[in-house]
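In pairs, describe these two lines:
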Amino acid sequence: MFDSQLAAEWLKAFKPPERIAPSAFAEREIRLAASANALPGPLRLTSYQREIVDAIADDETEFIVLMLSSQVGKSLAVLAMMAYAIGVDPGPMMHVSPTTAKSEEFVRDRFDSLVADSPLLRELIGKGQSTRKGSTGGINSVSGKSFPGGQIAFASSFKSDDLAARSVRYLFLDEIDRFARTVGVEGDPIPLAVKRTTAYQGKRRKIVIVSTPTTRMGSRINAWFLRGDQRKFMVTCPDCNNAAPLEIERLHREKGKPESAELQCEACGALHDDAKRRAMVEAGKWAPTAKGEPGIRSYHMGELASLIPPTANVLRKVAMDYEAADSPEAKQAFYNTSLALVYDAGTEVELSPIALEARAEPIKPPYAADIVFVTAGVDVQRDRLEVSFLAHHADGTASVLNHLKLMGDTTADAVWRDLDAALGTTFPLANGNTLSIHATAVDSGYSADQVLRFYHSQRAKSRRVYPTKGVGGFDRLPIVRGGRLRGQTGLLLIGVDRMKGEIQKRLSVEPNEAGYIRLPDHLPEDYFSGLASEELVARPVRGVMRYEYRRTFRQNEPFDCLIYAAAIAKTVDIEKIINPPAAKQFDREAFKQQVAAFAKQTRG
């Protein structure tokens, strides 16, 4: 007997794919239930969701990696991609959750709810042909669904039988940082699941990998993100048209007042409230920040760019969450879920300008009596010199006394005269003593001729000023002699990678711990942003993860100046300053005898 309905379904399955963008299809067909959504009714994707959803139909993309925070709608973006695959370009699919319980929760709370409220999906799910033996109809259960032209299996990362089933064209790996590390003798569940797509390798398969990150060394999603083109969502400042991602360093607020939180432009310093932030996000665009492996699109975005829920003050919420993160475990949760950044509670050095500024304290003359000596670190830019003064205490701690920006063309003489005056600063102590600067490190990477002239002028004044050059590599010593500046004077080479790690650790320890660096509360906010301007990241090089520091804030001169001032201090023997060698007593009788002997020798 001819089944006209089944024939119609098969004709529909074999018809050419509908020419429509996945995001447009999702907004046309998906309805959201009022019971589980702030905006029920027809789906309206956010500006940052649209490109992510459309990637499912991009011929050049095989892997879509989403390292996104909570509260940005990543689950809805994944559901929109699944809906497009079911309704427009069907094929065998698999969705993998960390555990069986999580898989069933996803089906009941998200997938089934979406299907129930979306007429087209409701019409398709449960239809088509099942792949199960002995089955003559479609399936619709918590472990699998069928639809014309395909099926979807819901699996657990802990079950190798689930992952080693039939071939699939679409693979969705959800929250991979919570996946099983190994599945029995089968090994890592991720490559095991990816192997199921081999038959569709090329332009037809799509593998969507989703998670908030965990720790630096243990985060699978971070490793996948680094393999891709590392897209970030760029928003444009309405005051200066500078485009940049929304990083935590741009969150400006009064201490203890999260309700005062505003978004600060890293270029012009303009402050924007949450309404302006939302407008900026609505007009924002994704931009790749790395070349990446072919076929891998990777996305990173934190909660600061969220438009969900539509009425929330996101800036205030993030500021409140940050202030509440007062333990290593709470910080772990905040960095992972709100910022979508890796973090290792108790071991990872993660500097935040907000935290650095919060622990700043009054540091002013007369300074602490236990300061033994003061060093200075100078960074040279095209249009300015920046200099930090670092005091070194007898107990091994240190204090930043001040940081100056000396504006001027560094190829001309005027700004160097300003630096000369600054290095003549003296520092009165509470015990009545006064200290001058013991040693100064000047970066010679820019305007080397002027650095050389300045060096000679300072030496003429008996000042210990040293031209320096930063060299990369974690195996470098903090400071050594090496090379010559313009062939005239020796350079001190600073192992900047090693020093960056040391300074970051010293900025993160508790006040009573060795090496602690005190920060003054009279410096502007951008000083603290500059101190937290670099982070240690890993990138794969020929299959091996290489670590390097990456700038997260445009102006990192405060960090560099502190590194130079701390590095040059390693050339100082603090014991000799605290306990100078005893001077020889003048022996008058011996001197008389030497004079008489010299006179006798002369007469002879």
